[in-house]
Amino acid sequence: MALFKYADNLAIISALSDGQTGVYTPASGPSNSALSVEFQSAYSAGEVFGLKIEAARPVAYAATSDLNGTEPRGGTLAISGTTYNILTPQPDSEGMTLLVLEEA
Question: Measured at the alpha carbon of residue 39, what is the angle toward residues 69 and 43, in degrees to the nearest 5?
């Protein structure tokens, strides 16, 4: 059973992101697109969307649809003037994708 519907996920990201916008560039091409993200820098531990997370790398949550059907792995995400390589995309079944990042 889904905890949140897609529209709820977008509202949560908007509320949690404090207006953060990332510029996503897929590995397959130069088409940049702005997307709302919830960004967590280097080390974080806590609960996001009901999932317990402990990470030593920066991560960002984004709506899967904002990735425009492209493969995020190998692409970049620029947030607040810092560019990150996308190492691992981890989509869930609820329309959200966790992007595991490293500073470029």
Answer: 125
Residues 6+ apart with CB under 8 A from 37: 13, 17, 20, 21, 22, 60, 61, 62, 77, 79, 99
d(C-alpha 47, C-alpha 26), whole Å: 28
Name all domains of the chain by residue range, CATH numbers in brackets. Answer: 6-103 (2.40.10)
DSSP state of 68: T
pLDDT digits (tens, 9 = 90+) for 31-89: 678 888 888 776 667 777 777 777 678 888 888 888 888 889 999 999 989 999 999 99
What length is written for the chain? 104
